[in-house]
């Protein structure tokens, strides 16, 4: 059981490190004349992620679970998502953020996983929220938070795309790419 808690704690620490990176990047974007879009819904995203981890910890504590061979599949997907996360973050560099940070006139980055998808980072978050609980047979957390995440992301993506289209070359860069289905054009 200690290994389960340590694994989840490691993921939580990773999220805190990402928040530090995001805050540093936000300060840089603002210093370049950028601004935040969609402030009003950001608190719901933060709340969703906090409650996700609370729910996960509660469910793994009160539910008797044993290692099941099929748990290797969600673990594998989760670990691949971590590689994708690093790829997405490093591809965006200073433009990566947990908030919707807009730098007017900036050229949208279309390298790394963004070469194939409009929103690879959100695809990664979807995979993580669905798979992390399944590793530990936390079925209720997986189901409830996958649904809540879908609702939250539907708003988030619309706000983000609208803000990027108004202030950058987003539409021209991504007009032939799907949100979550990989496509490639030169």
From TrEMBL:
Subcellular location, principal? membrane
Identify a single GO molecular function assigned to this protein: methyltransferase activity
Q: What is this protein called?
A: Isoprenylcysteine carboxyl methyltransferase family protein
Which positions, given as ranges, span the membrane?
Answer: 41-60, 67-88, 122-148
PANTHER family, alphabetically? BLL3993 PROTEIN
InterPro entries the UniProt entry points to: ICMT_MeTrfase, Metal_cation-efflux_comp
Q: Name one Pfam family in it.
A: ICMT
Name the keywords, alphabetized. Answer: Membrane, Methyltransferase, Transferase, Transmembrane, Transmembrane helix
The membrane topology of this protein is: Multi-pass membrane protein
BP-aspect Gene Ontology terms: methylation
Q: List localization entries.
A: Membrane
